[in-house]
Every structure is written in structure tokens, then in C-alpha cells.
Amino acid sequence: xxxxxxxVQLFLKCRGSRVVQRQMGTWALSRLSTVSAGRVQPVxxxxxxxxxxxxxxxxxxxxxxxPRPEIRNLPKLYEEAVALRDARDRxxxxxxxxxxxxxxxxxxxxxxxxxxxxxNELKERGKILRDELRSAISNFNKVNDAIIDLVISLPNILxxxxxxxxxxxxxxxxxxxxxxxxxxxxxxxxxxxxxxPAAEFPRSKAxxxxxxxSGEAQSYLLKNKYTETGNVDFVESSLFDVSGMDPxxxxxIRESNINPIPESHASYLVGGASFPAFLALFAQSxxxxxxxxxxIRYFVIGRSYGKKKYEKNxxxxxxxxxxxxxxxxxxxxxxxxxNLSNLTGNFLSRHIGTPFVMExxxxxxxxxxxxxxxxxxxxxxxxxxxSVSAIGDHVSKRLLCCYxxxxxxxxxxxxxxxxxxxxxxxxxxPLEVPPNPVNNSMSSNAYVA
Amino acid sequence: MSGIAEKYTSQSIIEGxxxxxxxxxPFGSFPAYQKIIDLYAKVSNHEDTSGELNELxxxxxxxxxxxxxxxxxxxxxxxxxxHLEGEPRTDEVMEFSKFCKNKNLIRTDNLxxxxxxxxxxxxxxxxxxxxxLIKLTVSQLQKRGFEIISVPDILFPHVxxxxxxxxxxxxxxxxxxxxxxxxxxxxxSGTAEMxxxxxxxxxxxxxxxxxxxxxxxxxxxxxxxxxxxxxGGLYRVHYFTKVEMFGVTASENGNESNELHEDFLRIQKExxxxxxxxxxxxxxxxxxxxxxxxxxxxxxxxxxxKKMFGEISSCSNCTDFQSRRLNLRYQSPSGQLKFVHxxxxxxxxxxxxxxxxxxxxxxxxxxxxxxxxxxxxxxxxWSELVASNPNxxxxxxxxxxxxxxxxxxxx
Lengths: 449, 411
Fold this sequence. Notes:
The structure holds two protein chains of two kinds.
Chain A: H1 2-14, H2 46-51, H3 53-63, H4 74-108, H5 113-152, E1 167-172, E2 188-191, E3 200-203, H6 205-223, E4 227-230, E5 234-236, H7 237-243, E6 251-255, E7 267-269, H8 275-282, E8 285-287, H9 290-293, E9 296-307, E10 315-327, H10 330-352, E11 356-360, E12 372-378, E13 384-392, H11 394-399, E14 401-404, E15 411-413, E16 415-423, H12 424-428
Parallel strand pairs in A: 4-9, 8-14
Antiparallel strand pairs in A: 1-11, 2-3, 5-7, 6-7, 9-10, 10-16, 11-12, 12-13, 13-16, 14-15
Chain B: H1 3-8, H2 11-14, H3 31-44, H4 50-60, H5 69-72, E1 81-85, H6 96-102, E2 106-107, H7 112-115, E3 121-123, H8 125-143, E4 147-148, E5 154-155, H9 157-162, E6 175-177, E7 187-188, H10 192-200, E8 204-206, E9 212-221, E10 239-249, H11 256-274, E11 279-283, E12 295-303, E13 308-319, H12 321-326, E14 329-331, E15 337-339, E16 341-349, H13 350-360, H14 372-375, H15 382-388, E17 394-396, H16 400-407
Parallel strand pairs in B: 4-9, 8-14
Antiparallel strand pairs in B: 1-11, 2-3, 5-7, 9-10, 10-16, 11-12, 12-13, 13-16, 14-15
């Protein structure tokens, strides 16, 4: 047992450039305790994982997760945890029974020597039982902790369509009769050092294009029965803790006059046009009237912010149109995924007038919560201007994004689709301007000396 | 010698004439200024050690801008209303947050755990209205000669400080990025004015290029909080969208920035008149000007649901405060390099504008009839958007017991 736990702990220490610390303790089998009342208690659904070990293993393999989680140890670990839990519960019961016995004896008020001796013996036995219980709890917690950490770090299973490499799907041209898009030749796009780490200044036409295109996307989506939202820009670390999403790709923020904030209460700048922002709307919530409102189709026009993966000190800012769909089940999710992919393609080719290449994104390039993703690239360049992803219920279970089941009082978990309908900034940016300007150090003091 | 130190330590000021600055005391008697006077004397007499010139500059940078005479004559305790427009609604109007929650147009509660304090979502017609306001405002500004520019929301601290906003200390409103250890410190911008100032830093204009008028739509981040009940909901939030005006003028006759400042105010009044809002314009006293403003007007709209005036816009003339720090200059007709003057103003701050529009144009039937000028920019009418907005009934699973109850079959 200890070697398995050790391996799990080692895995966690190696993942990424920063150790991902689970901020909440554990109490029952596969259940996290909460640091403060009201926090979300994820459903880790270990039973589902145990039934689909091969799919998870396949996912880990194709995504090239390093170090590789030893998911094959999970059944044994789980069996061990169940046994230790039962042992703990037995120890608890024995101790409680013993306590009752002692209490009864004291209540009877038999004061003779023999009774006093019995009492003392019982108290001594009580101490032994207490120590045995503590030991049983500790043994159980060790294994339970290991299970939970392993499960939280598991990626989503993959859709069969997702391969180990990107796969070309098709090229889509602009239909006849549709005016082709061409980037205006005289776009002003200034990168100014010494202002900020991602300081780009699109001017005049470039700036107005962003407004114009976002307006086009807005009209198009509203006509296709999407509802517009305005989203939060910040999310708390608790959203990442339990979902398994990597917070390192986002920008952590703080107020200047606040003492260092504990990790459990850290805030991250994600931008409204992002998947985590939409998750915040549905986390820890049950939709009571799913038949009336689902699938829920939302979109937002806003910013997204983040850090480039594996590149230190590089932050980015984008204007984008992000889509989010909450479905009842897998079938509905597949349908919506298909619909959104078609909608996105039609918008690009028939509405904007830009041809594009469609790709099935390979597993190593997916977020760990995505099952599959199709990307839309501008023809002849490597700019990804749109994408659609199927998530399933992987994140919903962990964040309790759920809806009321039909006849039972049990929740069902949403199956999610999300998409970058249009990456406005990257679409408009002239080719000669590199994306993600490198963190610019202050070139000179602007004060006049 | 720093252009800043030179200005604020000129002989007339050192001699203790009544303070021209936003500090309500004569210059000579303000303790911190004595230090500057002493440093200036040393440096002027060539007694400078290597650190003293820098120290003089750093101290002088803390001196606020001079105040306009009209600002100095304003009372600190009473509102100085210089213009009143329209009539207030006197009938009963549902307060914005309650109205929007009833129609599932907003969510502000139970977000602390996942989105932090004062997080908010808007939905349906409220979100569409936000985009309509942005498009309308930009279109109006373009017609009035503004060049539109997009700006970054993440800036280095010195850019923010050059615009007159403190980034350190107890009362600042700035968010910092928690960067990797060896990265340069960065902050979130509180207004596009900061980024535009940074964009223009170290520029030299020809006088023909002035006045320059720029406008930007940006996301603004402010850590300010309030425990007042009337400032709950969307009234005071940590992030919002704003359309900002920024102007740069020459300073030949000394009145150019005043004229542009009045022009910005006129634009704001014209914009808000189109929205049929009842509003008032206030001249702000020195205690409300902050570090950078020479003169400031605030516009407050009547919020009939809250039964109070709420600030929806402001407009400041910063004269050469920002330009001295950002090194913004122009070449005068005489060939001299001079510091420009800068002016800035809010064309549209979305959350407060949403509150004022929804409350002002609420009908007894429980809908909102927006002014035609705004309707032109709405993709669909308000009522249609309300009808198509899914009326989602949420149960927030606050406690462990509630969560366990609905998920027991998975555990």
C-alpha cells in the first residue's frame, strides 16, 4: 500500500512546474472535506473509472501525460480503501460500544472495590481502543488521499475520433456569390515596449474591425437561438482544485495591499470569454426545470487572458466570442457539437467569407478535460481562429453542474460543449505582427530627469 | 533638472504663496513640501550629492496638480451642481437588481466560492444592451472626430502611476499579477486612460496634429469595495467595460485643454440626452480631484429605483501632470518643445448605464422601453430578447448535506 501511495505522491510532485496542492482534506471514501462551509464537494465517480480503466489508460497514453498516472493501481487501492474504511468503522463501533459500557457502569454507582477495579480496567481498555481507532482512521486517510489525488489528476476519456496527432479533415472554400474576406492592407497594429507585457494597440480600422466582427457574430448566434451573456473575469482557485484544470495556464492576481493570500482563496484572471468563466455560472448548481430550458446555449463577447503553456513570463490577452452549451446527455451533446461545428464553419465561409481548414486536434494538444476538439485554421497559415470542444460530464461531476433527474431526487450531470466561435484578435492581427509579444521589460524610465 | 521639480519648486511657490494645488493648505506650510524646498535649495546651490536630485524628483512627483480656480471655489461639503437636465421619475420603479433577478437577467449571488466577491453575470437583453451601448457610443465618437484604438488591460505599474493613480499603499485600487518570480511586475488597468497614456509616452507631436482625440473600449479592473447597501449589485463591481475618451492638446495660449475639457463635457451631455436620462453635472472640489486632475466634472444620473443620484461619468483636465511623467511633448510654432496637456472622460461606463437605463425606462407593465437611439443598435427588441432568454430555475447547492442528497447514488 505504502509504495502505491508513494508513487501517487511522486507523480503529483513531478507534474508541471509547480506542485499542484489539493486544498481540501478528505473525510469519507472518495469525498473531500471542505475548508469552509459551502464549497463544492466533487463527485469523483470512481465506480465509472473502475469500469472504464482501459479508456482512461488510452487517454493517458495518447495525451502523453508525464509522469504517467498509474491508474492500474486504482482497483487494488480502492479495494484496500474499502477494507480500511470497514476496519475504521468497526473500530469506531467497538469504541462506541465500549464507551456506553463504561458510562453504564459509572451510572450504576457501585462503589465497591471490585467495581472500581473493573472501571479502571475498562478505562484502560478505552484508551487502547481510542489509539486503535486513530490508527485505523490514519491508515484509511492515507489511502483515501492517494485515491482522490490520483482521480482528480486523471484526464477525461477521449472520443474515438481523437488520435495522437492532428488530423486534417477538410478544406472549406468560400461559396460562389459570397464576398471573400480580405484583411485590409493598411491595418495599424502597434506593439509598444515598456507599456505592458502584452501591449498591442490595434488602431482605427483594426480596432473597428473587432467591433464589427463581434457584432456579426452576435447577430448570427442570436438568430441561431443562442443567448448572450456577460461573464465574470475572475474565478477562484476552488474551481481548479476539484475540476483538475490546470491553473498555471491562467494569471493569478492579488490586491497590492493584501497580505499573501492562501492558495485556497487565490483568484485568477481568466476573462469572460473563457470556459472557466461559464463554469462559474453553473458550478454547484442544480437546474430544476431541464425539460424547459436544456440544452442551454450561451455565448459571450469578451476578453480571455492567460499564460502561454510552458513559456515563462508570457501573458496574452485576446478578444473573442466564446460559446457554451449545457446538454442533458451524451447523445444531445454529440448533436450540439455537430451543430456548433457546422454553425462555426458556415459563419466563417458564408458569412465572413473566409476559407478555412478543419482539423481534428490530436490528444497531446487537448486540455485534459476535453474529449475532442475540431479546430478551424485560416488557409495557408497556422492561425486557429475557431474551435469546438466536447467535454462530456467530466468537469460537471467535479463542479456539480447538474440538473434534476426525471423521477428521482438524484441529480444528473450536464454534458458540456464549449467553443471559441471566433478569436477576434488573432483573426484580425496582420500576419507580420507576431502573436503573444514577449514580456517587454521597461526600456527606459519615462520620467524626465 | 526635472521638468516636474522645476515647475513645483519655482520661486513663487517656495515663497509660500497660497497653495495652487489640490492640497487645501498653503504650499509653504505643508510639511512634505519643506523637504522639497530644502532639496531644491541644495541642488540649486550645487550641493547635490548623487542621490539628492533623484530624491527631489521622486518627492516632487507626489505633488498633486494645480487646481482650477473654479474648482478651488467649490464647497467640500455641498454638491456643486452646474447643470441639471430633464425631470426625475417620481412614480414607483423597481430597483434594478430586483427587476433583473425577477426576469433572470442577472446573477450576483452565491458566486463567492467560484468567482470571488462582487462577481456578476448578465444574460439576454442586458448583455445585448451592453453591446448596443458600446457600438452606439463608438459610432457617436467617430462622428465627433475620435480615432478608435484598442488597448491592453495589463500594464506596468509606472504607466499607471504616471497617470496619477497609486499602485501601492492602503487606498489604491489596483490589482497586481502574481507573476513568475523573475517577471516584471504588472497590474490590471483601471481605465483605458492609463493604456492610452502609455501608448503615447515619449511622443513628440507637431502642433498641427493637436488636438488629438482618441477613444477606446476596454475592460477596467478596480479593487474598490463598498459595504453600503445602495452600492450593491452592479453599482460597484471589480470589473466592467467602459468607453473612454482621451485628448491631447497644445498649450500655446493656455486655454486649449480647458476648451477640450468643455468639449468632452458637451459630448457626454449630448450622449446622455439621447438616452432621456435625468442627470446633473457637478463641478468637483479639490478634495475629489485626485493627484492628476486640474479640473473635473462628474455627471450623475437619477436612479429612480434606488432613489438616488449615481455617478455615470466623469471628465478631467490633467493639464501637464501626465505629460510630464509620460514625456509627451509637442513642437510649438516657435520651435520649442513643450509638454502637452491631456484630458480624459467617460463616454460610457456599462454597469451604471445599465442601471440608469433599466430604471429610467421601466414601464408599469414590467418591461423596458429603450430610447429609439439605443434600439437602433439592439440586434433585437428588448421584449423579444426577454422572451427568448431561457428562464432557468437554479437551486444553489450550498451545504454538504444538500450536495450529498442529490449525488448520493454516485457515492
